[in-house]
Design a protein that fits this description.
With 477 residues, the chain is of the alpha/beta class. It folds into three domains: 7-97, NAD(P)-binding Rossmann-like Domain (Rossmann fold, 3-Layer(aba) Sandwich), CATH 3.40.50.720; 107-312, UDP-N-acetylmuramoyl-L-alanine:D-glutamate ligase (3-Layer(aba) Sandwich), CATH 3.40.1190; 321-474, Alpha-Beta Complex (Protein-Tyrosine Phosphatase, Chain A), CATH 3.90.190.20. The chain is 35% helix and 22% strand. It is globular, with a radius of gyration of 23 Å.
Length: 477
């Protein structure tokens, strides 16, 4: 694989450079020798990690941040048309490149492996990145989350394999031409861009059609949306070689058994007619399925199955995907990126499987007004799996408010399921509230795709301070 940077991207400016997808592109470009600059709305650990790579990061968006000699401006679908740097680029005639086009250009000359699906993309891509690195194949990768420290979401490797998370939210995954494509599941989401499940299926069909001649599709045999996609592809005829995985009896790579062991899982699969058992440092069936998808994808690339299974044991998690933030007063605090009902249910079931007699408490922040409008009832039903939940206001991200759509819709739906749920509009009140609810042995999940993650450390601090105060009180008696 050539490390050369396309001439159009040798002095790029990335708007929203601190985001998970954009920061990965910035890091790879910098590692290949480009002079990278960009801007983000606020300071972050990711922005500081980019500066350590020699990237210029401006905070705030302003026309003067765009250098006179910038060769292109890279944007994601989240960037609004009135962004002053985007307006300046169009005024000066600086080419504007979508994030997906930039990533596709970086994958040219490589053997791309693209991981798609409504849920589980970041985890599965991370598993592959870690396993392939452990095997010494020196992959490049671009992930929608950090593996262990800020800035670990991307790497330019010396090997020929490039592992990438393929985002369906804005159809940008149509830009890639993978040798191996993974489809984990297919569900209706991203309601601002898709009007029906039929549109979702058509979009995934287009993605599969982009697989290179002689390539492989790895797809779930358990998820009904994925099975429907498989049926559609079979009815059309032709297409790539297809390998199915899952617990279904007709799966090519069949999950025979999953043994939960706290925050880890022992997984037994039947592959090539033979049983194989390996351990992954993630809990629950959902994450075990991601590991098997990674195993099947790696084998499709020609990697030895036993070596790959062993290497998957090197994966220790990714930030915000059931990430243990710490423990205090006998209570563990875990961070979850889950924001779709299927993800919420999967993470709660995973934590429940290792919680023993402890309770599972959730601080949930709905993400996007459009998603809450369409899925509030399902979110409420999923939250009913927790012993108690606190629901924050909606995190708007890129959206403007929608009249009548508030987090109260989720609270009402959860309450209708008999759940112990309460609204909380003041984020600063949450640490005290949760610390008063939690008892030794309980697990607390901060859950959502917004800034709810920032509450984890504050909850831990409050739990610790209460424990110290109780000890002092007991000692004084």
């Amino acid at each position: 694989m050539t490390p050369a940077v396309p001439s159009a991207m040798d002095r790029p400016h990335l708007i929203g450079i601190g985001g998970a997808g954009m920061s990965g592109i910035a890091k790879i470009l910098a590692m290949r020798g480009a002079r990278v600059a960009g801007s983000d709305a606020r300071e972050s650990a990711g922005a500081e990690a980019l500066r350590a790579q020699g990237v210029t990061v401006h905070i705030g968006h302003a026309e003067e941040h765009l250098a006179e000699d910038a060769t292109c401006v890279i944007v994601s679908s989240a960037i609004r048309e009135d962004n002053p740097e985007l307006v300046a680029a169009e005024k000066r005639g600086v080419p504007v490149v979508h994030r997906a086009d930039a990533l596709a250009a970086l994958m040219e000359g490589a053997r791309p492996l693209a991981v798609a699906g409504t849920h589980g993309k970041t985890t599965t891509t991370s598993m592959l990145a870690v396993a392939l690195t452990t095997l010494g194949v020196e992959p490049s990768y671009a992930i929608g989350g950090d593996l262990d420290v800020p800035g670990s979401n991307a790497l330019h490797g010396a090997g020929e394999i490039f592992v990438a998370e393929a985002d369906e939210s804005d159809r940008s995954f149509h830009k890639y031409a993978p040798e191996v494509a993974v489809v984990l599941n297919v569900e209706l989401d991203h309601h601002a861009n898709y009007g029906s499940i039929e549109e979702i299926h058509e979009s995934f069909e287009t993605f599969v059609d982009r697989i290179r001649p002689g390539g492989t599709l790895v797809i779930s045999a358990d998820h009904e949306g994925a099975r429907e996609l498989t049926r559609r592809l079979a009815a059309r005829g032709g297409g790539p070689r297809t390998v199915t995985y899952g617990e279904a009896e007709d799966a090519d790579v069949r999950i025979f058994k999953i043994n939960p062991r706290g925050l880890t899982s022992e997984v037994t699969v039947v592959i090539g007619g033979r049983p194989l058992t390996f351990t992954v440092s993630v809990p629950g069936r959902h994450y075990a399925g991601n590991a098997v998808a990674a195993l099947a994808a790696g084998v499709a690339l020609g990697l030895p199955v036993h070596n790959l299974a062993s290497a998957l044991g090197s994966y220790t998690g990714v930030q915000r995907r059931l990430q243990l933030k710490g423990a205090a007063a006998g209570v563990q605090v875990i961070d979850s990126y889950a924001h779709h009902p299927t993800e919420i249910a999967a993470d709660l079931e995973a934590i429940r499987s290792g919680a023993g007699d402890g309770r599972v408490l959730v601080v949930f922040q709905p993400h996007l007004f459009s998603r809450t409008r369409e899925l509030a009832a399902e979110m409420g039903r999923a939250l009913a799996l927790a012993d108690a939940s606190v629901v924050l206001d909606i995190y708007p991200a890129r959206e403007d408010p929608i009249p009548g759509v508030t987090s109260a819709l989720v609270v009402e739906a959860a309450a209708a399921q008999g759940a112990d749920v309460r609204p909380e509009h003041a984020r600063e009140a949450v640490p005290e509230l949760i610390a008063g609810m939690a008892a030794p042995g309980d697990s607390v999940l901060t859950m959502g795709a917004g800034d709810v993650t920032e509450l984890g450390s504050a909850i831990l601090a409050r739990l610790e301070s209460l424990a110290v105060a109780e000890k002092r009180s007991a000692d004084a008696v």
